[in-house]
Design brief:
calcium, ATP-binding, binds guanosine-5'-triphosphate, 6-stranded mixed sheet, binds calcium ion, 40% helix, 15 helices, alpha/beta
């Protein structure tokens, strides 16, 4: 059946209107996006690199970081792109043949040459920071520690990077840079808190405290609520326009390897060639050469003359006895401040959340106590360690055939030591325990002092908030697209209302 003439005209008018509108719409979008892209071309990506060697007491790690040059004062832009474990022990262990300390770094330095593009190598800063192992060596024999550092320096200077020096960092620096690293990675430094001023009582997101457990020393760093009574433990930072009064302390000899040395030194009997050790699983045995045991600064307090050179350590896997032995290395009897952690060291009340890394993480992760999605109470953690200690060594070895024997054999001691250090040493209780997160990496970068060290030395953390930058390229394009859509929509509405009137006039609708 034939349609009436008016209906046909009406349909054709609407069709034309839609075709023209569609055409205009597509044209407008294409024009605006093209203009936005061409006129506001992003700058070519200028990536910068930085290299830090963490010369720890137990081993050396090399870290490579990268960041976009144009955003270097923002927070959270520096990313770890590579980590290389140096083969062999920490550089302080080469004190008898210092030239080998530098050579040991070759494999990782060669790897760094492969990671940093050739055209960036000359401008890439290279730092080496040595921690507690070298601190101990320099206390016992400063000449030897200088020789080790020279050997390292001679080797690092051979590479095409911008070598900035090798030095022993202080325990205070180690604590402070660890704190900066985790708060930088967690994005705690830059926050728009202007709106918070309307609500007096409300505070911005607080920084995390940092707990680092190495082989020879351990650090605790946090922003306390009360005054810091001892100047040695007090640091002041102004970062991104905010001031921070930070408490930090580094306990030399309380890293997990040196804590174990303290236990051996205290428990070995002058004439016994056997040490029944409750901190190792039943069936585990280890030979310990004790000739140099008491030459170490960390064991000086337990000095005694021995008639033996070797002692066989035999595990008895007795958690309660192990705990009793471990607690003896924390002296809590004297304190000249209003409160102390241990060994007469001032410590304010614990405050806020804490990130615990290095051996805190390695050990708790192995014991399945580090899962943030499935947090365990302090009581659960104690029970887990107790159970692990009671397991026979053969059974443990069969279950974890790929784990390094040194690490596996020490988890009973390490678990007991960590819980004692946190609870008895630092004063965490069942409630504050829940504020500890055991972390290895944060947003792909290892938690540790190296990133904070590099950020500080390259002046990447400004004291004041940098002025806000004009819109980024992506933001500019998005803004143009949204405004063009709004514009087209408005035009469309106007057009349709005009068309409606004309069509009504012509009797089309
Ligand atoms: N279970 C386990 N232990 C590890 C691992 N890597 C290192 N450790 C041990 O954990 C302890 C701390 O290691 P690090 O944090 O590297 O210590 P460090 O930096 O050498 O020592 P400091 O100079 O005191 O900081 C040492 O006893 C290491 O032997 C690992 O992957 N797993
Ligand atoms: Ca360390």
């Amino acid at each position: 059946m034939e349609q009436p003439r008016g209906t046909k005209q009406k349909k054709s008018c609407q069709k034309n209107v839609f075709i023209i509108l569609g055409f205009l719409f597509i044209l407008a979008i294409i024009t605006i996006i093209t203009v936005a892209i061409i006129q506001n071309k992003p700058l070519e990506k200028n990536v910068k690199y930085g290299i830090v060697l963490d010369a720890g007491s137990s081993h050396t790690n090399l870290y490579i970081y990268e960041w976009p040059a144009e955003k270097e004062n923002d927070t959270g832009v520096v990313k770890q792109v590579d980590m290389c474990k140096v083969d062999g022990p920490g550089i302080s262990s080469y004190y008898k043949e210092p030239e080998k300390a530098g050579l040991s770094l070759k494999k990782c330095m060669d790897e760094a040459k492969g990671v940093v593009p050739e055209n960036r190598q000359r401008e890439t800063p290279l730092y080496l920071g040595a921690t507690a192992g070298m601190r101990l060596l320099s206390m016992v024999n400063p000449g030897l520690s200088d020789q080790v550092l020279s050997s390292v320096e001679n080797n690092l200077e051979l590479y095409p990077f911008d070598y900035q020096g090798a030095r022993i960092i202080t325990g205070q620096e180690e604590g402070a840079y660890g704190w900066i690293t985790i708060n930088y990675l967690l994005g705690k430094f830059v926050q728009d808190e202007s709106w918070l001023s309307f609500f007096p009582g409300l505070k911005g997101s607080e920084t995390f405290g940092a707990l680092d457990l190495g082989g020879a020393s351990t650090q605790i760093t946090f922003v306390p609520e009360n005054d810091i009574e001892s100047p040695d433990n007090s640091l002041h930072f102004r970062l991104y326009g905010r001031s921070y009064n930070v408490y930090t302390h580094s306990f030399l000899c309380y890293g997990k390897d040196q804590a174990l040395q303290q236990l051996f030194a205290s428990n070995i009997k002058p004439t016994d060639t056997i040490l029944q050790d409750p901190c190792f699983n039943v069936g585990y045995t280890r030979n310990v050469n004790v000739t140099g045991l008491y030459k170490n600064h960390c064991t000086a307090a337990y000095r005694k003359s021995l008639n033996v050179t070797n002692v066989q350590v035999i595990g008895t896997g007795n958690h309660d006895q192990c705990l009793q032995n471990v607690l003896e290395i924390f002296n809590r009897s004297q304190c000249t401040y209003s409160r102390c952690s241990f060994n007469g060291v001032f410590q304010p009340h614990l405050q806020g959340d804490f990130g615990a890394f290095s051996a805190f993480f390695f050990v708790m992760d192995f014991l399945k106590l580090a899962d943030i999605k499935n947090p365990k109470s302090l009581e659960d953690a104690k029970e887990t360690v107790r159970k692990f200690c009671s397991r026979p060594w053969q059974e443990v070895k069969v279950e974890f055939p790929k784990t390094k024997e040194k690490y596996l054999s020490e988890y009973c001691f390490s678990g007991t030591y960590i819980l004692s250090l946190l609870e008895v040493g630092y004063g965490f209780n069942s409630t504050s325990w829940d504020s500890i997160r055991f972390v290895g990496k944060i947003s792909g970068s290892d938690a540790g002092w190296t990133l904070g060290y590099m950020l500080n030395l390259t002046n990447m953390i400004p004291a004041e908030l940098p002025p806000s930058r004009p819109l980024s390229h992506e933001g500019y394009v998005a803004l143009m697209v949204v405004s063009s859509l709004v514009l087209v929509a408005v035009l469309l509405i106007i057009w349709l209302s005009c068309c409606k009137e004309k069509c009504l006039e012509k009797g089309i609708i």
